Description:
This protein is of the alpha+beta class and 208 residues long.
Amino acid sequence: MEFQDVVRRRRMIRNYADRPVDPAIVDRALRNATRAPSAGFSQGWGFLVLDTPDDVRRWWRTTADGVDDPDQWLRGMMRAPVVIVPCSSKAAYLRRYAEPDKGWSDEAEARWPMPYWHLDTAMASLLILQTAVDEGLGSCFFGIPAEKQEAVRVEFAIPGSHDPIGVITIGHRAEDPGNAGSPSRRRRRELSEVVHRGRWTPDSQVPG
């Protein structure tokens, strides 16, 4: 598939067919994720992969209410055979930038204008989403409820050195798309509304 087609076709899919995914595709997506840029080549990411029916079921039982009587959204999502949890390591970045070639003598978080450990892991996640599109699959990135974070850590033994930034489902799209997201109700903003050449123009504000 041409790159521009991958970009154009990417959607957050919330309704999956009950079909397995080739493990080789999952491996390819993960390899592509590790090609994402990372500050100082810190590579402070980790990926929890759940690709067996028991592990996927365990994920939903840990993070969602109503698994035994799911609503439309949960029913469609639970059919995804692969769940990937991208995690970022702040410590890896703080240590990396305290090394001699970076010139910082300490691991102070205050030196960082933005949490690049999260940003880099998010870019890695996008490569997973794009790989799924390139393979003719559907995928969705969404957040883990705040009140379920600790349960996820405990159930899946995620170490304190890493923080889940969200979760990705991968699978074959259902014939009935169902569970349409916000793009079905909100227009895509025009370039003229979001691109500012030379200086920020006051008439291009985020809609309220």
